[in-house]
Amino acid sequence: MVQPLLALRGVSKRFAAVQALVDVDLEIRAGEVVALVGGNAAGKSTLVKVISGVGPADRGVIAWEGRPVQIRRPHDARALGIATVYQDLAMCGNLDVVGNLFLGREIHRHGVLDEVEMERRARELLRTLPIDIPDVRAPLATLSGGQRQVVAITRSFLSGPRLLLLDEPTASLGIEQTNQFLDLIEELRDRGTGILLISHNMGDIKAVADRVAVLRLGRNNGLFDVGTTSQEQIIASVTGAVDHSGRHRPSTDPGERWS
Fold it and tell me: I need a surface site. Which of 45, 179, 203, 228 has the fewest CB within 10 A?
């Protein structure tokens, strides 16, 4: 039996008096897109921080290809092959594409920046992706939202990731750019990359995700196969109209939002 690329068992995380995650389980396989959804304060961002090493879990087991591992720092996640692309992208608009790709990991030759080699590698990486960036020396600020997302993902490729965490990647994109980006996600899945997609957009989820994991108030509240589950069923689990056992019940949080 093939082990999941990443498996979380009983993961919990507390911030002072706030219990952000409670006994959360999650599996992601190679070549699979798992969408992570939930309302406000569901624990999505906290779970991403646990997996990426930014905010280690207080308890629980994390396994990589069936082997228990410790992810205490971002370096630990990167060493396993986990890369994260955050919603704000964390890039510099005044630098060109090459400068952003190699920011903090510049290539030197005889003590001098090897601009030629960095540009060559940038072009080589970008050619493999479906969204075209014709000028790798263009300042990032001049690119479209979709092109910037591609640069952010391409930067993560420099470490050879096997699992990619995408935090609301289409939130600021138009319809055409979103479609291009969803094509990119499908291509990455076809290459065998595991993807955790955090999104509020049910259209995007239905388009590319294989499974949907629902968090509600820091707990698992459903795991669904996208091909056999209606959008209404998933939203009911998100809002609390249906709990993890399948029982219908009203939401206990009047301030909870789902879009």
Answer: 228
Among the listed residues 229, 233, 231, the one whose alpha carbon sits nearest the alpha carbon of residue 243: 233
CATH of the domain at 63: 3.40.50.300
Q: What is the pLDDT of residues 108-158, one digit of tens each?
A: 999 999 999 999 988 888 887 766 788 999 999 998 877 887 788 788 777
Tokens coding 225:
């196969």
Q: Do 88 and 34 contact (CB within 8 A), yes or no? A: no
Write down the pLDDT at residue 27: 98
Residues 67 and 183 in one domain: yes
Q: Are 173 and 181 in contact (CB under 8 A)?
A: yes
Angstrom distance (rounded) from CA 45 to CA 236 = 21
Q: In degrees, to the nearest 5, what angle opens at C-alpha 253 toward C-alphas 238 and 228?
A: 10
**Shared-domain flag, residues 134 and 166:** no
Model confidence pLDDT, tens digit, residues 8-24: 999 999 999 999 999 99
Secondary structure element (H or E) that encloses residue 183, with its range: helix 175-190
C-alpha neighbours within 13 Å on the C-beta side of residue 46: 23
Shared-domain flag, residues 22 and 35? yes
